[in-house]
Predict the structure.
Amino acid sequence: MKVIPAFAISVALVLLRSGLCFGQTAARPEVHTASPGDTLPTHGPLAHLSPKLSHRDIIKAVRLVADWQLTRMPLPAQYDWTWAALYDGFMAVPHNVNVDKYQRAMKQVGKALNWQPGPRPTHADDQAVGQMYMEQYFIHKDPRMIAAMRAELDAEITTPDPSNSSDPKNPLWWWCDALFMAPPVFADMSKATGDPKYLAYMDREWQFTTNLLYDHSRHLYSRDATFIDKHEKNGEKIFWSRGNGWVMGGIVRVLKVLPADSPLRPKYVELLKEMASEMVSIQGSDGLWRPGLLDADSYPLPEISGSAFITYAIAYGVNEGILDRATYWPAVRKAWAGTLSHVYADGRLGSIQPVGAAPGAYTETSSYVYGVGAWLLAAEEIERGVK
């Protein structure tokens, strides 16, 4: 996607005036680690943040991580799904952290991208950025922010699906993490326009994916159809923490905009309950989840992007009265403390698995933007739930 130079200049000027400086575009857009040739240290001092669930302590942690990441945004602006998850996190930063600095920065990203989705029509990865566009629209009520996305969704709904999504073995959203990417955009569009066709389409496609990938006995999703019969070293099925975390994040993003009287609502509420119950039953002693959810012993490090999305969803469920606070809030408290043990003194968030499709290897300092986005979303829900 080509970016209009004037918009790129506008982004740089606005953020420079805010005391922020962008680094160069990373060698791979999903990696925040900095300019080509730069390397992160193999170790560094941790931030030693307080795990106390108080507004003050949560805000301190959020400001540290969010500011570190914001100063490392790339030019030109990115529409990629990895960055889209980060944009969602920035949009969720509580106003009492630093007024609306992060939301203003995201507005400039939207302008730089002309409020366009990625170039692949119907592809969930290229629609994920629409979540930030929709949130900006709800704030500013500027129809230009959602016009291109609305046109793409309308075309998708009315055009025969080239992937033949009506085939239960070939759904449009064939990988489980796609349920975070695209469905919330359709749900948001329904809210923005008042047209139920977007919800109906979203629900139909979600169900195709669930029918294929959801294990009703373990209440977890296989990453895609190729994993349905794959197993860990201990004989358990492979269920990827990040993939399932993204599903839970998608459930939350849909529930946030579903009308209270929507006939679709009970299904998504029940799905959140089932997955949350399973997650709490396998939560690690450090409060976090390993890449392979059912074989923690095979993975030495917790995975923060999956853990953060799981925490986000559980905290939301508690805040909305979907999940019992006495049962689930201790798990949230434990998970938050666990994530803080992977925040470095400079604000870098570590122990995040690189882009992939299955449990894999990484280091304690491995850091990627989607993990930061998930962590900021979790922080917002936890701060909202502090009594």
